[in-house]
Amino acid sequence: MSAQLSEQEIIRRNKLEKLEALGINPYPAPLYPVTHYSTDIKNAFTEETKEQFADVCIAGRIMSINDKGKVFFIKIQDSKGIIQLYVRKDDVCPGENKTLFDEVIKHLIDLGDIIGVTGFVFVTRTGEISVHAKSFTLLSKSLKPLPVVKRDDEGNVYDEVTDPEFRYRQRYAHLIVQPEIKNTFVKRTKLINTIRHFLNERGAFEVETPVLQPIPGGAAARPFVTHHNALDIPLYMRIANELYLKRLIVGGFDWVYEFSRDFRNEGMDRTHNPEFTILEWYTAYKDYFWMMETTEQLFEQIALALHGTTEVKVGDNIISFKAPFKRISIYDAIKEYTGFDVSEMNEEQLYEVCKQLHLEVDKSMGKGKLVDTIFGEKAEGNFIQPTFIIDYPVEMSPLTKKHRSKPGLVERFELMVNGKELANAYTELNDPVDQRERFEEQSRLMERGDDEAMYIDEDFLRALEYGMPPTSGIGIGIDRLCMLMTNQPSIQDVLFFPQMRPERKPDEA
């Protein structure tokens, strides 16, 4: 173990032993009675309010140490910000025993240690609001040195940690040295709370559905497989919660929603993580036209809640979430950006178009997947402003009701923003006979080698046979929505702990 430690880590462990030899517990158990926080103190302290700060207890992580002999200026960081401590020898060690100052504070504390002090708030000669310490307690000894992040005189980062291996794998350390990244995650929670409020005030009911499922249904995706020992059966981590939410519509709930943690055993890139959060809701007696209007209202409200305006800066673009959004059929979108009218083409013709467009396709791909490939590769990225892509071919949408007036199409839309899909919605298929035929077609695609085709879910078909009212449903990718609303380039930047490749051990490097 010691052979793998850096010189600094060895020094800190030696300090740990010296603390214990002095009878000081470097990891004490008792509650520490924090009463105040850094930013609150600095925002509220004035000459008129100083009596309110005559007795404070504050705790945090040491971020800088300035040794002035009998006085230390120490800056600590708590959950709200940074504040300076004024630690004078005779104040924290009023008696004859000066060990706490001469040994512990002067020689055994380090950057990264967590400490607590009691005292009073005052303003230093240089005008900095600080806490004059009357007592000093070590609350946690840090055995690993923090990375150095350089800042200007105003506290702005000019040499941030950019190594993704550190940023994403050691998020806990990244949050310490660059606490401003917390703002992204604060906005994520605010975004989710805004959605909850929007849905709850309209009468929607939040529910929970199984993560482990006997059949991976509700989407075209490759699942993770596990095994239940007691039942001796395979189980799948859910790729979607759609079919369970529809079962609840059958059971008599008119509007249900769930923030679902879903899992897909597929690639990783800047917009995909194998586990992700999606919001799905289903509303009885509605259709996809109503859903488009409701989605516009929701996105407009999210932008206002997070930014105070419907215009959001994303990269070099200004995205306007002011309703209404543009609407265009998937066939018209493909024609606009490829020149091909594929609306009447069969599978072989679509295959040839893909070849002409130099797209990677194979014979296992059916008509729906070929159309999806053309749109995804040649059209999708062009839709920067919020746009509903509507009226998909039936082969692409095995859970969607056939279009009321356009043969061969279904009542479906996807919301594209900044060149990426953010939402997918249908007028839901509630005809059990039609649904069985769609599942059977998916089964035939699976036999041809499509490992993302859907399984036949007999229990879901049974539920439909009891009768499901006309329904509209939607899925909204929360992680991508957070990327968009916080102007982050990668999904890893909006997940506290994104999936990473296994960490190499030192002897494997």
From TrEMBL:
Its EC number is 6.1.1.6. GO terms for molecular function: ATP binding; lysine-tRNA ligase activity; magnesium ion binding; tRNA binding. It is an enzyme of class 6 (ligase). One of its GO terms (cellular component) is cytosol. NCBIfam families: lysS_bact (TIGR00499), PRK00484.1 (NF001756). It is found in: Cytoplasm. The keyword Metal-binding applies. InterPro entries: Aa-tRNA-synt_II (IPR004364), aa-tRNA-synth_II (IPR006195), aa-tRNA-synth_II/BPL/LPL (IPR045864), Lys-tRNA-ligase_II (IPR002313), Lys-tRNA-ligase_II_N (IPR044136), Lys-tRNA-synth_II_C (IPR018149), NA-bd_OB-fold (IPR012340), NA-bd_OB_tRNA (IPR004365). Mg(2+) 1 binds at residues 414, 421. It catalyses: tRNA(Lys) + L-lysine + ATP = L-lysyl-tRNA(Lys) + AMP + diphosphate. It holds the Pfam family tRNA-synt_2. Keywords: Aminoacyl-tRNA synthetase, ATP-binding, Cytoplasm, Ligase, Magnesium, Metal-binding, Nucleotide-binding, Protein biosynthesis. Homodimer. PROSITE patterns: AA_TRNA_LIGASE_II (PS50862). GO terms for biological process: lysyl-tRNA aminoacylation. This is Lysine--tRNA ligase. Residues 188-502 form the Aminoacyl-transfer RNA synthetases class-II family profile domain. Binds 3 Mg(2+) ions per subunit. Its cofactor is Mg(2+). The keyword rRNA processing does not apply. Mg(2+) 2 binds at residue 421. Belongs to the class-II aminoacyl-tRNA synthetase family.
